[in-house]
Structures are given as structure tokens and as C-alpha cells.
Amino acid sequence: MSQGIDLGDDERALLSCLPQDGRPVSNHEARNRLGWDERRYLSARARLEELRDVRVGGMPGAVGFIRLNLTPRVARVPLGEDEEEFLSCLPHDGSPVESAAIDSRLGWDEERYAGACAKLEERGYLAKRLGRGETLGRNLAAVPPEFRTACGRPGSHVRVRHAPVIVPHALCDLTGVRLTYPGRGGCIVPQPGCGTGNSMGLIVSVDGDTLDVTVEVRGVAGNR
């Protein structure tokens, strides 16, 4: 996962023992699979956390977990101010806006405009439509369909269909949105860097840097 980065044997071994679909496992289980002592395990885990190749967490008083970070490496770094300002000109629902209108609103020179646009395209955040006048919109392909109508709308309700799932904040701001999952109850998206959960096994966390929202479920499903 760490393209262009030289990982040690321990880091590679830890990555290889984790489910490739991003499902979490407890730290205890991962360590047992490898047959390592705690010090060796924590050293390898810390390096992978630093590179953002894994995500770790757990609710207070609960067993900690670890899982692969399936977010593309280019999208793990927070957006720059120009990229954020550029995205702020685009509707949350993905509706297209003429490039000329964006350019006029930002008031940037051509180089600055092109630079921000290129960085957003590299992450896959922009949808271009060519024609008589070029238009740009948020590329919501990375946002599961059930979340799209709640983007930028605090107080909205989303019934999550699949978990685990990661929703990129840059494309879909879920601040203040209530998320529910069949048989697992519901939670309101918490503050950045925090996690919340309920007794039915629904866990919602917000990355402290990218603000991406992760939804996971644990254990046996309860009643709806």
C-alpha cells in the first residue's frame, strides 16, 4: 500500500495479516496471528499509523482494533486552502457549475486556478463536463448513494447500507448528520478526531486530519 516507501519486514508482515477488505480485527488477534510480543507489535503498528496505511481505534473501555486504510494514499493528506476554497464553489449535490463562474468568484490568476484544479482532479474529486462552456462539479462517485442527499445538510438522516464504509469529507460534509444501520441503532456524526458508538455495535469515527467519516459495525446485530 505504501508505494514508493520502503517498509521493513515487520510492517509488511503486519499489513499482510490484516483483512484486505478493510474489516477490523482486535490488536490482540493481530498480535497472536504474528506471534509477536507487545513491544514488537506496537513498533510496527506505530510506523504504519504514521504512514496512514492502517487505522486504529476503539471506544473507551473496549478492546482496540486495527484495520487496513483503504483510502488511496493521495487522498489521506488534508486538502490545501486553495483546494478547499475551490470545492466550496461547487454544490454539495454534484450539480455542475460553469468554469467561468468559478473563476470569477475566486478571482485567481490562471496558474493558481489550474494548480488547485489539477490537485483535485488527481484525487478524483472533480467531474468535468466539456461542451460549449466547460463545467465542473463534485465527483460523488466515491460517496455511497445513500449519503449523497445528506452532504452539507446537518440534521439529515442516512440509513447506511454497507459497512465498513469511509465517506470523504472533502466531497461530502456529514457534520451533524444522523446515521443508522439495520439492527444497530443510530449515531450522530461526532466532532473531528472523535468516535462515537452505541451498545448495538454501531461505531462512527471522524479522522482528525482529513475529517473523513468511517462507519463500522461490531458483534451480533440487535433489533431494529
Provide an overview of this structure.
Helix content is 28%, strand content 21%. With 224 residues, the protein is α+β, with helices and mostly antiparallel strands. The strands form 4 sheets. Strands 8-13-12-11 form a 4-stranded antiparallel beta sheet, with no helix packed on it. A 3-stranded antiparallel beta sheet has the order 1-3-2. Strand 2 (54-57) and strand 3 (65-68) form a beta hairpin. The model is unreliable at 59-63 (pLDDT under 50).
Keywords:
224 residues, four-stranded antiparallel sheet, Arc Repressor Mutant, subunit A, 3 domains, alpha+beta, 21% strand, globular, 7 helices
Total discrete domains: 3
Mean pLDDT: 84
Order of helices and strands: HEHHEEHEHHEEHEEEEEEE
Distance between the termini: 37 Å
Total of DSSP H or I helical runs spanning 4+ residues: 7
Largest sheet: 4 strands, antiparallel
What's the gyration radius in Å? Answer: 20 Å
Shape: globular
**Main sheet: strand order:** 8-13-12-11
Structural class: alpha+beta
Could you give the count of β-strands?
13
List the helices and strands and how they pair.
Layout: H1 9-16, E1 25-26, H2 27-34, H3 38-50, E2 54-57, E3 65-68, H4 81-88, E4 97-98, H5 99-106, H6 110-123, E5 126-129, E6 135-138, H7 145-148, E7 157-159, E8 165-167, E9 178-181, E10 185-188, E11 195-197, E12 202-206, E13 213-217
Parallel strand pairs: 7-9
Antiparallel strand pairs: 1-3, 2-3, 4-6, 5-6, 8-13, 9-10, 11-12, 12-13
Helix pairs in contact: 1-3
